[in-house]
Design brief:
The protein has helices at 3-28, 33-65, 69-89, 103-112, 115-126, 131-155, 161-184. By secondary structure, the chain is mainly alpha-helical. α2 runs antiparallel to α6 and α3 packs antiparallel against α7 (161-184). The chain is elongated.
Length: 185
Amino acid sequence: MTLLEIFFLSFVLGLDAFSVSIAAGAFFRKATKRQKFRLSFHFGFFQFIMPIIGWAIGVNVLKFIEKFDHWVVFGILFALGLKMIWEGRKVGNEIVSKDISKGFYLITLAIATSLDALAIGFSLALLNVHIFFVSLIIGIVAAAMTLIGIRIGERTSAMFNTKAFIFGGIILILLGIKILFEHLL
């Protein structure tokens, strides 16, 4: 993977955290520094660790599927892309009714917004990618996108939520198609 592809992937994976942080910023209207830190740290950390976990699973399965691994990667990226587009088409945004920067809500959202990164980590194992560097970039980008999302949410509403999901889904599908064509040609 090139550095540009890693940043595109990081951006797409950070869209879940970005969307949630826009909603949080809109709800908080003026998030405290502590709330901003907790959200960005946890979202970034889980985006960092989940690809590593997925990669570890993928490395152990690689020998069984290496003849058709590019199809598996394509299928995962395509399915995740379609899922993001579908979620982006849903009408309305969930309203944050609790301080999501604390406790159970924070951990649950951090895991939920990084499940796609787990699947991507599995895919990256199939592509023989050095996972630590890629995961580090993914985590940093997600943390930064969370901070930016909170700021946007504070200043606007969560109206960008659906467009971000649709755009991210299209990028994942295109990345999957690119990988498939690289292996078939």
